[in-house]
Amino acid sequence: MVFSKVPKINFMKTALPLLRTLLTILVLFIMTPKGNAQALTEFAFKNPVLISGVADQDGAVYKFKNVAPGVDATVTIIGRSGPEVVLDTIDIAPGGGMGYDKALQPQLGIHGTVAPYSNWWMKFQVNFITAGKNNAVSIANFLASSIDVDGDNVTIAENIKMFQANAVTTSIASVLTSPLPQPVICPKDHVASLSADCPDCSGRGFTVKSNGTVQDCSTCNNTGKLFAVCRHPWAGSDLMMSGTTFNAVGIDTLAINNMATFSYANTDQVTFSYGGTTGAIGSTAGQRLNSLWFKSFDYSLSSLLPVKLQAFTATPGEAGVNLKWTTSNEISFNYFELERSTDGKTFEECAVVFGAENTTSTINYNYIDKNVYNSSPLLYYRLKMVDISGKSTYSQVQIIRMENDKNNVSILAYPNPTTDQLLISMPAAWHGSKAVAQIYTASGIMVKTVQLSNTSQSERMDVSQLVRGLYVINITCQNKTLQARMLKN
Questions:
Q1: Contact at 8 Å (CB) between 177 and 345?
Q2: Of 179, 183, 221, the residue nearest 200 (C-alpha)
Q3: What is the per-residue pLDDT across 359-401, written as a single tens digit (0 to 9) for each?
Q4: Verdict on whether the full-model pTM lies above 0.70
């Protein structure tokens, strides 16, 4: 959807300065010049003023005052993929019925009809400066969350690229995809490599002295990361997240499956681009509204579901795939959509089940997806939950092996790449047996071991503490070891 965004309520957040101690490390709002970076938890982009160049054209510079205490920001249009890409406005205010007051919300794209197989973008640079002055202000740590990365329900898929970001975080229910990370050139010795946790601060970006005081880590320049090869402070990667053609309703921070949060450290500027692509057909919805809010969000499913989902399972049966789920506290809830995929990326609706009417009782649901044994050797299922206001979110994905041969043993890791949780599909011959899962780095160092006492259709592993990179997963069961590869973002 392009111009029918649902208005949202602005949530006010008050930041209180607290002491950083061993037990609680919180950011302080302390104004310092560049070189002595400050840490901020949120920026508010409101009321832009054109201070240089021609409005909406390349080279135009807009100023946003008081994006944080003592900090102004400028936003410069660096360039675009072609003259057909138009910026309607640098920041749509919520008074127009769309988005959030504090977010930076450029509306851009292609007017008229976008041709099939098109690819367009517009690039911006944000600079942080001292309020009322022009000297740069370096920010120690901050986050930028892209909201509503979706499509037009037909052919358009939006994307965002954040240049030189340290990391990106998404929900386990995310429908966004990202290319494999590429090595970055170290600006000091020009050697290309990926990142690794700083050994001096264990990847935290700070160290704690014996007296309990906290000190920024000088080894990694407070980023928590080093270049894996040369061991210089990490300079960040160009990270892109692409949405699907699915159109999420409104600009909604509860739609965590269409959101991504990028982290930065020790910088006075952020460069990013918003764009989109079309598939085999064209579209007249090429003018898109984007929303980039410089703050963090809770991506845990439990706090955001419109209904409390206690369990969701998918198991193969003689008649088809048995889908079962259990809920409670269905207040102001509407219906469930069961979605199926053969590749883990593109999902289609296979059933709609209406929920109970306002109850706190525990309710069990069951649905059999029939005639699927010849569709694909692997099937992916997820549960979409929609409340009466139209807000929705997704369950975790379940993977089903449509195999009748129990001697066919292999494992599958999903999602891949991943950020925090990994789902491993287990061979049918191993169900109910003891197994050992081990994760190794690409250089052969074992970093995690998990004992599985009673293997099931799929097993989940927490990989959130692993550093970015390529890993090999070994699972041993019944005197046989199987391997899969995983890319950690």
A1: yes
A2: 221
A3: 778 899 999 998 776 667 678 889 998 887 777 778 878 877 7
A4: no
